[in-house]
## 1
Amino acid sequence: MPGDRAGKVLVHEGFHCQLHKRQNSRFRWRCWQKECRVPLVTNDFNLEAENPRIRILDHKDHMHDVEMRQINRAKVREDLKREDPTV
């Protein structure tokens, strides 16, 4: 899912994670909430693919509740951006 500021966002178990860096054929992500910043590590995959094969290699517990309301809101915004305005 694209982020609001052109960054990449991964949603895992109801939590937003921002792409932090690519390292040794892995992606390192971190929680988007500044108070949390819990790390998440995935395999290296094509960020532009429609349905990429993502393997979670390591993750920790977050220090806050699941963010389903924000996730649903982001999905609706993304769907609206994809719609053809002439329809």
Note: The longest strand covers residues 15-23.
## 2
Amino acid sequence: MIIMYFIKSIPTREPSRPMDLTDYIMAWEAGNLSPRKTVEFFSKILKEGTVWHLQGMYGRFAANLIQAGYIDGEGNILKMPED
């Protein structure tokens, strides 16, 4: 009973509010970002330099996107995956 109350009391993101960095991190780690949104997310955090301050898996994934030709080292999108 207490657990259900706790879960119901957790605030959720308002649908009208744009996603912020935390929202994107949570969505990506949960596997809820489309391939297109994933490339956009990594482009943004590469451009900002944030990717190098997060867990190592973010830098490794960014390196994989660079090697696959989706983004360049500065975070510019070179091509988009098909959803």
Note: Confidence is low (pLDDT under 50) at residues 4-10.
